């Protein structure tokens, strides 16, 4: 089998079919159905999925696969068949169906490395891999390809002696804001405060503020609260009395809203009957599945809330899955009224930087 039928990553009607490529001799033991590969396509180099292997092609001149992207297939035969079924049932392109089934890490920007498996020493490897891993327990994928080691590494991966690790690069741009805090102890702050001349009223106000607040405070909040200029802070920073640092802050789309805290409601007899086995399983740390069946307004959400309250009481976390993004606002309101800032919301309409709020224990997401 020296020919691979590849679905290329070009979602279009004209390309929604397999294209045949020759498998280079050095990759014959590596490339299998479900493996991602880089192939030439016109003037470009693009990614694709190997769908099948075969010995002959109806085309006489075939271009060769440039390189594989995986030591082991990311899609097994069952998933490939599922992708074909999805294509037929949803009228989508095959490449779209395949892409939908791979982990998000493989779609993000990442650095791929080959690492020694746990419990493996470099002396357990074969050939020139021993020298390669003698000083480093990991090597970059690009180095493995350039040195022609992919086939050897594939055999080691099949034997469980090496693993492929995908280190995802952070796609979220962190929001950093300047924070001010004391650089010296409170006693020293007070001494300096008492020695400041009357005309240094701005600096006096800042030091009075930090005599009561030792933790870092956002600079713009200090300026607006005290009604002073930035020069007052900069002067104290130059003297080594205060320090300014950029700290990460979380974007909270609900920061401007106030939620009235509400206590748990009194349950009806039917609700009590429904929640009893759930609370029992939580108390016993059992993993059970429960199906709540009730019409709209019958009180299912209150059962969720009180069950989650019990989970939080035990120091654990809870995830609530909402079937539609349009339901998120009303669900967030219900949960924040009960749990306040413990609630975090995540869904596909959120910008990445806003997806996590307050690092909460409970989250509502689609």
Task: Provide structural commentary.
With 366 residues, the chain is an alpha+beta fold. It folds into 4 domains: 3-76, PriA, 3(prime) DNA-binding domain (GIY-YIG endonuclease, 3-Layer(aba) Sandwich); 108-167; 180-248, no CATH class; 269-358, P-loop containing nucleotide triphosphate hydrolases (Rossmann fold), CATH 3.40.50.300. The protein contains 12 helices and 14 strands. The chain has helices at residues 77-90, 94-101, 129-132, 141-146, 150-158, 186-195, 201-212, 219-226, 230-238, 269-283, 300-313, 328-339; strands spanning 3-8, 18-22, 36-41, 44-54, 67-68, 110-116, 138-140, 162-168, 175-182, 217-218, 242-249, 318-321, 343-346, 362-365. The strands form 4 sheets. Strands 2-1-4-3-5 form a 5-stranded antiparallel beta sheet. Helix 10 runs parallel beside helix 11 (300-313). The radius of gyration is 30 Å and the shape is extended. 20% of the residues are buried. Residues 281-366 form the Helicase ATP-binding domain. Keywords: ATP-binding, DNA-binding, Helicase, Hydrolase, Nucleotide-binding. This is Helicase PriA essential for OriC/DnaA-independent DNA replication.
């Amino acid at each position: 089998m020296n020919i691979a039928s590849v679905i290329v990553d070009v979602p279009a009607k004209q390309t929604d079919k397999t294209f045949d490529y020759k498998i280079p001799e050095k990759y014959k033991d590596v490339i299998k159905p479900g493996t991602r590969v880089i192939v030439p396509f016109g003037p470009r180099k693009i990614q694709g999925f190997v769908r099948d292997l075969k010995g002959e092609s109806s085309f006489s001149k075939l271009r060769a696969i440039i390189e594989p992207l995986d030591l082991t297939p990311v899609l097994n035969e069952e998933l490939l068949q599922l992708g074909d079924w999805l294509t037929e049932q949803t009228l989508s392109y095959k490449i779209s169906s395949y892409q939908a089934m791979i982990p998000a890490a493989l779609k993000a920007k990442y650095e791929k490395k080959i690492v020694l498996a746990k419990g493996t020493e470099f002396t357990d490897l074969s050939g020139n891999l021993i020298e390669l891993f003698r000083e480093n327990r990991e090597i970059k994928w690009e180095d493995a390809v350039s040195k022609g080691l992919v086939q050897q590494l594939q055999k080691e991966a099949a034997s469980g002696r090496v693993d492929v690790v995908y280190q995802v690069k952070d796609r979220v741009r962190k929001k950093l804001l300047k924070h001010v805090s004391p650089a010296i102890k409170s006693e020293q702050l007070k001494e300096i405060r008492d020695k400041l001349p009357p005309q240094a009223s701005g600096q006096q106000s800042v030091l009075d503020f930090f005599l009561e607040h030792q933790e870092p405070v956002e600079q713009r909040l200090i300026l607006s609260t005290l009604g002073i200029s930035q020069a007052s802070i900069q002067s104290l920073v130059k003297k080594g009395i205060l320090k300014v640092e950029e700290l990460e802050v979380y974007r909270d789309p609900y920061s401007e809203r106030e939620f009235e805290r509400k206590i748990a409601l009194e349950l009806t007899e039917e609700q009590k009957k429904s929640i009893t086995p759930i609370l029992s399983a939580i108390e016993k740390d059992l993993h059970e599945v429960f199906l709540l069946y009730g019409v709209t307004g019958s009180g299912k959400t209150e059962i969720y809330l009180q069950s989650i309250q019990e989970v939080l009481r035990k120091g654990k976390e809870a995830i609530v899955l909402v079937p539609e993004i349009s339901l998120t606002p009303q669900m967030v309101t219900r949960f924040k009224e009960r749990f306040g800032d413990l609630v975090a919301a995540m869904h596909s309409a959120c910008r990445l930087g806003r997806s996590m709020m307050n690092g909460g224990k409970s989250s509502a997401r689609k």
